[in-house]
Every structure is written in structure tokens, then in C-alpha cells.
Amino acid sequence: xxxxxxxxxxxxxxxxxxEHRFQGKMFDEENILGELSEPLKExxxxxxxxxxxxxxxxxxxxxPNFVTAVLTKLRFxxxxxxxxxxxxxxxxxxxxxxxxxxxxxxxRGNKETKxxxxxxxxxxCLLTRGRRTASVRADTYCRLYSLSVDSFNEVLEEHPMMRxxxxxxxxxxxxxxxxxxxxxxxxxxxxxxxxxxxxxG
Length: 201
Known about the structure:
This is Cyclic nucleotide-binding domain-containing protein. This protein has 201 residues and is of the alpha+beta class. The chain has one domain (8-190): Jelly Rolls (Sandwich), CATH 2.60.120. It is built from nine helices and eight strands. The chain has helices spanning 8-22, 29-35, 38-54, 57-60, 64-73, 123-128, 149-158, 160-176, 182-194; strands at residues 75-79, 84-86, 94-100, 102-106, 113-116, 120-121, 135-138, 142-148. The longest helix has 17 residues, at 38-54. It starts with 7 loop residues before the first helix and ends in a 7-residue tail after the last helix.
């Protein structure tokens, strides 16, 4: 910070970021986990992140192997108050799970929606490869876990039935905020007609 002559307010934010991210204990977690066996790694990740997905209806009755596969792909991230985690119009590359904190979902013309501990957001773009339909801003310090589009697709290749479940949830969310996505709508109605349903769309 001294070398780059960063302003005092930026230095303060960096100090606070490290304090919240590492809480006084700094170590190379990825390096440590990388040395462990797969069963030990899975046991740690399951212990640390199981409560994140326990509240999600999507994972409630999912194959435990799918849940574990998702958990091992999660990456820990910290955001400070007023940070934009997602900006509307940008290409979506990650979805997020909120471990602790509160965010505001901002859509043009709609009132702000709040999400907090145990909620998730950003999954729509992982399925559509489209642009973000809303901005998400941190209201408080937020401890999140992210899942990248590449990791997401790796897991879904092994569990194709879960892709349909995610698509159904994504269509439902788009309906609630008054948006449509032709790719998801088409996939959803195809899945409905294959199942012999009328496909309400």
C-alpha cells in the first residue's frame, strides 16, 4: 500500500477486508486442503458448507453425491458494505451462496429485494450464459461462497437431472421479477411436454 501510495480511505478498506476475511488467522487454505486425501477434503467441506445448502429447497432431496460435488467446488469470498457483487448487464460467470450478511437485489423499475444468510443468487446466468438481469449490492460485510460457471457445468455433466431442477427454479425467479428468457422457457416447456404435462410456461 505504501509502495503504490494508496489513499488513506482505500488503505483502511483493505485493512478491514483482511480483518473480516481472515479474522486474525491467515493461512493458505487451498494449499492445506490440496495436501489432504479426497475423503478428508470432502469431510471438511461438508462440515463447513452443509448448512449453506441445507436451507435450499433445490438441495433438500438431491443426491448426496451431487451436493458434495457442488460443495467441493465452492470458493470463499468476502465483500464490504456497498460493494457491487453483481452488476446488471454484465455476463454472469458465478452464482453465490450467502453464509453471513445481507445483500440488496436491484432491478430497474422494481423495489429493492433483500437476501440474507442461507440465500443464494446469480444461478440464472449460469444456465443461460446470458447477461445479469439485476445488480446485487452488499448491505453489510458479506461472507459468501461462489460457484463458477465452469465448475457448475462440470458437476451438472455428472448429474443431468439437476440441470432441469435449476432451470425450473430459474424460470420461476424470472417470472417473479417479470423477466423472460427464451432459452430457459423453451427448455422448461420441453421438459414439461416430455413429462406429459401441459407446460404452463
